[in-house]
Amino acid sequence: MDSDPVELGVTLLAHLEDESLSVAEAIDRLETITTDPHLTREILDTAELRGIIEREEGLIRTRSDSFVRFERQVVSREGDFECRRCGSPLSTGYFIQFETGELGPFGSSCIRKVTGRE
C-alpha cells in the first residue's frame, strides 16, 4: 500500500457512520489497514488529537459528520482478490477511495461492516 497508513486510518475513522463503537470494534476496522499495534495506537491518538474521535471508558465516539458515499467513493472491480477484513476469496472486490488513499478490497458484507453500515 502506497498510502500513509496513519492518514488512511484517521480518514477511515472520520468516515464511520457509527456515533460510537467499542475500542475493539474500531481496532477491527483499523486492522484492514494495519495489524501493528503501535501503528493502530498512533492512528487512534492522531484521530483524537485532531478532534475526529473521543475516547472514554472503552468507547470511541466519532465527532465527524462525514461518511463514505457509496455511489462516489466505493468502486467495484472484477478480479481475483482476497478480502482485507475476513480473508475470503473474491471475484468482485469493493474499494473505498479516500483522498488519502484507497482501502480494499472487501467483500459485499465486509465493506458495510468496515464503514459502519451493518
From TrEMBL:
Q: Which InterPro entries match?
A: DUF5830
Per its UniProt entry, which superkingdom is the organism in? Archaea
Q: What is this protein called?
A: MarR family transcriptional regulator
